[in-house]
Amino acid sequence: MHTINKVIDASTLETISSKIALSKNDVGTLIIKTKEPVVFDAFHDIATMGRFVLVDDLIVCGGGIIEKSAELLRERPIVATHSPLISPKSSLVHEVERRQRFGHRGKVVWITGLPGCGKEEIAPYLERVLFDDGKQVFYLDAATMRFTLTSDLDFSPQARHEQARRVAEAANILLHAGFIVVVSIVSPFKEDRAYARSIIGEENFIEIFVDTPLEICKAKNPHGVYAQADMVAYEPSEYLVHTLTIQNKEFSVQDKVKDLLRVLSPVQDLVHVPPSLVWHDGAVSRDDRIRLLGLQSSKDPQGSRNKVLWLTGLSGSGKSSIARAVEKQLHQLGKLCYVIDGDNLRHGLNQDLGFTREDREENIRRAGHVAKLFYDAGLFVIASFVSPYASDRNFVRQLIGPDFIEIFVDCSLEVCEQRDTKGMYKKARAGLIVDFTGISQPYERPEKAELVLDSARETLEKNVEKVLAYLGFA
User: Fold this and answer.
1) Could you confirm whether 69 is annotated as catalytic?
2) What is the pLDDT of residue 430?
3) What is the pTM of this model?
4) Is the pLDDT of residue 72 over 50?
5) Could you say which of 387, 412, 440, 455 is catalytic?
């Protein structure tokens, strides 16, 4: 028995603050240290692998359930310490208590990219904005750490690995102190970022790639690392990350941080809410609803649980037609489903919005929250929105979680103009419509959509089959 966090009165379930040891028939939460590695699952994931008994000289002397591994040690390679007397210590202040004190969850925002990409300007400004909003936040700059914690390291590949590891460990410590940690680091090797993500936890780790052309990075740093050092190639991550695109040497740091805040807000409680407003959880959980609907538990990583299918693409690409056809097929399969169409939403909830960049952001923010209401109610949601900006789609992805399925309806601008079912492209070319995606506003193609549908070459029926097959219903 390594650490006793608290002793609980078995009859009242109240914490007995005066006791620091477990007596016979006592209940408590504690950390157990084993001599050898033990395979287990958390009880709430797989109950049979999350139970244990303690046996002393063939006599059962205790038992319990396993919540999780010690946070600061999870996912690390097993290594030997220099002394058998060294063992990890656990804080008596729980994560929930820190969250209640600070008013937000701890997170690590890992901002990565080439030297000179702009992360060095974005990260400290993000810290300033969060601090001014009352958040417990800390900016961890890898370059600055080379004067202190990593001053013994050079720039060889092995040293770069070690620097990224130390930065990740430092960020993890700050995370468990309740901080939002803003990290600025090149970290060119994907395995280093994956390691940081594994020890910090996917739910706590937000990777931001600042995508800036090499020519601009060099122009911003003419006499720096590019002139003096051999640069290693930057390896893209193999999992989904958020991307900030910078196309010019001079850019608005405020706008980029605004984009970041929109990505972070659904998972970090970063949106300011008046203290008079309190979130009320329903008495019926989402799991209760999906069981009633005959779906599998939300804890099932795949299964037939409900999803949010987010169809994105140019106007005229075929999103609405595919969405309606998928809805019809799911309905015939006995699945409760609903289409949220961008045009329809603009006739009601979003009728006050135009098509400027700011209004488009607000349009998708509202649509995302509407989709989440339907999703929490247990429905399959088929959302059809142009949603041209990657940051807006990533906002909804973070809001929904792993059941968000991005479907890119890929159709070239030329084909969409030829179709022009609403006559919008013709008006946009004539200057009668401003802020039109594909003509006077950009469309940012999804980089890692779960599903890509070629609506120019494939039939409607074929694309619907692909969606159903992805869901496991084909």
Assistant:
1) no
2) 85
3) 0.55
4) no
5) 387
